[in-house]
Amino acid sequence: MIDDTGTNTAPAQTGRYRDVWRRSIDEREDFWLDAARAVDWVRPPSAALTQRSPTDYRWFADGALNTSYNALDRHVLAGRGNHTALIYDSAMTGSRVRLSYSDLLERVARFAGVLRAAGVGRGDRVIVYLPMIPEAVVAMLACARLGAVHSVVFGGFSASELAVRIDDARPAVLVTASGGLEPGKTVEYLPLVQKALELSAGSVHTVIVRDRPAIPGSAADYAGPAAAAGVRWLDWAHAEDGAVPAGPVTVAGDDPLYILYTSGTTGNPKGIIRDNGGHAVALTWSMRNIYDIGPDDVFWAASDVGWVVGHSYIVYAPLLAGATTVLYEGKPIGTPDAGAFWRVVQDYRVTVLFTAPTAIRAIRRVDPELAELARYDVTSLTALFLAGERLDPETFHWANDGLHCPVVDHWWQTETGWAICANPRGIQELPTKPGSTAVPVPGYDIAILDAEGQPVTKPGKDGNIAIRLPLPPGGLLGIWGGEDRFASAYLSAFPGYYATGDSGHLDADGYLYVMGRTDDVINVAGHRLSTGSLEEVLTRHPAIAECAVLGVHDPVKGQRAAGFVTLKAGAVVDHDLLMAELVNLVREHIGPVAAFRDVTILDRLPKTRSGKILRKTIRQIVDGEPYKVPPTIEDPAVLDALTRAVHPRAPAHLPD
Ligand code: COA
Ligand code: AMP
Q: Which structural domains are found in the chain, ordered by start?
């Protein structure tokens, strides 16, 4: 049901879900104070929500706690020290490691001692640039232990992107490894770190390096005269040897736990700030109520610690819940085959697998009959959760039919830190509707708004998806270095609401359908990229006059970035060479993760008479969709030229 304010008042289902959701909105304070009892506080919060200004909400602000204590010490003190906390499985090296809660606590406390000896204290920032190895989890939790703020940077980003994050977060310490392993290649991190230090303004005074046997490079290679001015390079193992284990430092509920950079509409990534208290409460609550996971379960988020899914569901949530988490270094296919995921599920009796639809599409492309699945026992699996991009109904049906366990599409963002809409299996399993991300998670009050901010009351009608303020616990505290940026990016478009940047609709049962973005953000293999930053890079090439980058359909990655460029008058260039140079420019300035390979050189870009690039029409032409020639177009002949360039064998006009 949608009321005349556009609010999804009572999802049509009866029963427990609806009651829990209602209470989370109508009795918000009591609801979240109850949920907060699942966390151990040094000083319990007297209030759940505090409002400092019309747009500044804080959760559990007068509570005091430590997140690493809640993720580790608490379970050891409760006698569960021998329980497995972390399973590390590397399909790249064959390495398999199990760390109990006591083991992980010991390693985290020791590494926190290393960081403290390097001068890191409460509120200081630490950049973590590590591949999928246990040290990534150790480094994050060690920061949390000290009340320091980690900022993890995904390994597929370039030195320039790392430098941008260093300049914004101003960390004193950077933790890294000799490198990461990708199928068929090694990615050496240390030259990238060295370059990022050169490019950045110089806040980093210590770099701590974890050696990996398979990858050349160590702290010793960069220390001494070769080191950038004033930078110490320490070897992780060496530093750990002499370290004094550090205990948990008490922080305020609304002290920052981490900064995670994500793409926005501008070229500058936004540093999303997460708090300690709201985050711990929300994630702990989510494990039981959304995923139906308890301490005896094995939870596997097949993502990367560099993304929000990795932060929330590889590292924090499973450990806060006292469960076992799996850290998998590998791909869904090719490491060694399309049975890789099923092998991990079997070997560790995984209860819930969480990944991106792109991983499932990749498996489907290689193994459409799911022949590999038959080789493994995956009966431990109670559900497959998918998020990060739209789950197309075809992929949903394929996975749902093949796996014989529920497939749950759920929707969330780096900003929210956990699901906004889901089928809350721990509360009540609701009917599934392919193409929908199901119903609002308790705590989220969702509305569909038109361009003027008026509620769209008609079921099925698309609009901007907005969340009525306040966001529940776990939502972003702000953008690092810019209070105004938070309000202008998210809160000013629709006063009283957080604008998600996604568009979609609610149906008559209150199920949400997320259809796409309303801004320039695209989603390539579940990785969020800004077309604005890609365009910025392309225009650096001296031959380029203008360019447009858009997300076009890709059968495996959901979307891929396609670039359209025009050349400066008089520029004489070899087109193949230019395309290769542009692809390399993106690799160098953004990183391989952009997976940018698609460039079309045009005489002119399709534009309106006022000079606006007709992005939607370009995308429709590339995707082979029918399109209308916009009445404001400067010159319709440009569309024919574009069609011929991208579909050389197609008729010039597709039917309307
Ligand atoms: N470090 C360094 N490079 C990385 C990297 C990392 N952590 N992750 C990816 N890359 C590189 C890849 O090696 C590749 O480089 P190349 O252009 O030299 O070949 C490039 O970035 C693109 O990688 P990717 O997008 O992963 O494409 P792919 O074709 O190698 O693999 C999939 C396709 C679908 C198998 C892969 O994207 C995948 O597993 N996706 C899962 C998505 C996911 O976990 N999303 C997280 C949100 S939940
Ligand atoms: P990120 O911040 O990288 O997690 O990306 C968040 C964005 O990914 C959202 O704003 C959506 O555009 C998209 N997204 C995430 N999950 C889903 C989903 N289940 N269905 C559709 N889009 C999704």
A: 102-249 (3.40.50.980), 525-646 (3.30.300.30)
